[in-house]
């Protein structure tokens, strides 16, 4: 497992820690011109949970992989938070915004992997 794949695994664990739902990873490594190698997309049921998911992803990535995001956008409203780790982009949505933007469909040429929800 390379460093980027390890970061993806670590961030997913952070999202699962705070009960993130409908987590998917999008492997963009085989697509030329993609903006990153992987995307992680998940949802939280309230702005408070979206914020907690972002905090947990940040904590896990920093503690387990020694990584910090280059930027974080959307944290003030916490309806859609984007975290940019360079090789990995993390999108944390409220369900209605995730459905509206439908990022998984935009990248349907890539390998999309559904991660099982933890109860």
From TrEMBL:
Subcellular location: Cytoplasm
Superkingdom: Bacteria
Keyword Cytoplasm recorded: yes
SUPFAM superfamilies listed in its UniProt record: Nucleotidyltransferase (SSF81301)
Keyword flag Cell inner membrane: no
Record keywords: Cytoplasm, Repressor, Translation regulation
Main location class: cytoplasm
Cleaved signal peptide residues: none
Cross-referenced InterPro entries: Iojap/RsfS/C7orf30, NT_sf
Subunit structure and binding partners: Interacts with ribosomal protein uL14 (rplN).
Role: Functions as a ribosomal silencing factor. Interacts with ribosomal protein uL14 (rplN), blocking formation of intersubunit bridge B8. Prevents association of the 30S and 50S ribosomal subunits and the formation of functional ribosomes, thus repressing translation.
Protein family membership: Belongs to the Iojap/RsfS family.
Protein name: Ribosomal silencing factor RsfS
Gene name of the record: rsfS
């Amino acid at each position: 497992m390379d460093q980027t794949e390890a970061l993806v695994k670590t961030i997913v664990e952070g999202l699962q820690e705070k009960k993130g739902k409908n987590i998917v990873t999008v492997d963009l490594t085989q697509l030329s011109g993609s903006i990153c190698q992987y995307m992680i997309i998940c949802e939280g049921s309230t702005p408070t949970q979206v914020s907690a998911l972002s905090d947990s992803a940040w904590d896990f990535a920093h503690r387990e992989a020694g990584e910090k995001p280059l930027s974080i956008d959307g944290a003030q409203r916490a309806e859609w938070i984007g975290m940019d780790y360079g090789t990995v982009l993390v999108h944390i949505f409220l369900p209605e915004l995730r459905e509206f933007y439908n990022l998984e469909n935009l990248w349907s040429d890539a390998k999309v992997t559904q991660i099982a929800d933890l109860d």
